[in-house]
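Postdoc handover notes: sequence design on the structure in folder B. Input tokens:
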């Protein structure tokens, strides 16, 4: 049988950046792209300690404009170009208690990290992609962009909704010029932080980890597939999206949520 693609080497001539690439989903994506042969740069505020020796680490705090500018400069001067940009950084640190407990700082910090960091990195890396008429940008959003939870993550949900909208608009501008732009919106992912959170809930409520996990799934309205995603589930799909096999895909949002969103 004719082999159509060599999945292990299909990204061998590509240089990729994965933000938030030291933990959770970003880490799984970085390892997946590296396995496909890409030169992969990961970034975070702290060095992960141990990491796959094929990955390149650059320290940057992307919650402020200077951190993004530094990262763009450092990558373009050291690697000469960037072909694949995975904006995986994101998260929420705001307290529970609804709208009334959230101040301007909570809103601003969340929007900086979840919306403005991708906007700034795209702006920094797009010119050289457009010049070469080649590149792929992925925005990792969340199902909260369309299924917002109000207790502690309202700014996060609003920022992710903005990211999904921005991603679509940007794709219209740059796809005719050779750069594909896509959004991936995961549901709940069982990262190492989520595992620790389940252990804490189980301990404080004197239940098992399975019961704690079920209580979070119930709060989401249920996950039809019966469990949260693993980071590798998201990484595998991103690996496909950035590959030449997905060359006709742009301007689309892909939801990976085990069926969590209850509507069509
Ligand atoms: N986990 C979920 O259930 C879930 C669900 C839907 C969507 N998502 C989305 O999926 C993406 C990955 O989430 P995750 O939960 O897998 O991530 P995670 O495990 O919490 O890891 C976050 C990563 O971002 C880095 N980071 C945090 N703040 C940073 C900053 N200011 N500047 C630079 N790097 C920073 C962290 O390293 P340092 O702390 O060292 O900086 C780490 O590498 C996010 O966009 C998230 O919104 C996650």
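Designed sequence:
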């Amino acid at each position: 049988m004719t082999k159509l693609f060599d999945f292990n080497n299909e990204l061998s001539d590509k240089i990729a950046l994965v933000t938030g690439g030291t933990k959770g989903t970003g880490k799984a994506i970085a390892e997946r792209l590296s396995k496909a042969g890409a030169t992969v740069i990961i970034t975070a505020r702290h060095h992960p300690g141990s990491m796959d020796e094929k990955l390149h680490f650059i320290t940057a705090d992307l919650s402020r404009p200077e951190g993004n500018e530094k990262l763009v400069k450092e990558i373009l001067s050291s690697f000469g170009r960037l072909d694949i940009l995975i904006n995986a950084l994101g998260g929420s640190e705001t307290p529970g208690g609804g709208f009334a407990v959230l101040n301007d700082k909570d809103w601003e910090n969340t929007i900086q990290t979840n919306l403005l960091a991708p906007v700034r990195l795209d702006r920094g890396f797009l010119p050289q992609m457009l010049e070469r008429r080649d590149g792929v940008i992925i925005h990792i959003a969340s199902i909260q962009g369309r299924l917002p939870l109000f207790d502690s993550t309202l700014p996060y949900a609003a920022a992710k909704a903005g990211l999904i909208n921005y991603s679509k608009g940007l794709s219209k501008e740059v796809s005719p010029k050779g750069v594909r732009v896509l959004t991936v919106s995961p549901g709940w992912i069982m990262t190492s932080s989520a595992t620790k959170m389940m252990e804490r809930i189980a301990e404080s409520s004197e239940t098992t980890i399975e019961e704690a996990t079920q209580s979070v799934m119930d709060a989401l309205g249920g996950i039809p597939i019966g469990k949260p995603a693993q980071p590798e589930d998201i990484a595998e799909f991103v690996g496909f999206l950035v590959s030449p096999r997905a060359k006709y895909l742009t301007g689309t949002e892909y939801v990976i949520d085990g069926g969590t969103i209850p509507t069509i």
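Context for whoever picks this up: The first helix runs from residue 24 to 35. Don't rerun without checking with the PI first.
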